[in-house]
């Protein structure tokens, strides 16, 4: 699954809307121009949406060979993106300006994991 559905957004917003959330992004790109399409998606975010919703890229890195994983579970890119709250993330994804460029993300990815995380402890 690549797209975020409305039920998942509602569930995320209802879990704990106060406090920051860091979204873990595991990305596997399509071999036919996926990286380029994802780069255009990131440029779309930087053009204005990211400032409006306070997102901050905490870490972005290319994946290497997985040392411990089932076959096929190595990822092309790993990103950690911090949002001021779950609601900020939900509002961003529902923003028409964001949605205007969301197709670039979908076109870029063969497979993806998008998981909210909060500090342990």
UniProtKB/TrEMBL annotation:
Domain DUF1330: 36-108
InterPro entries in UniProt: Dimeric_a/b-barrel (IPR011008), DUF1330 (IPR010753)
Domain of life the protein comes from: Bacteria
SUPFAM superfamilies: Dimeric alpha+beta barrel (SSF54909)
Protein name: DUF1330 domain-containing protein
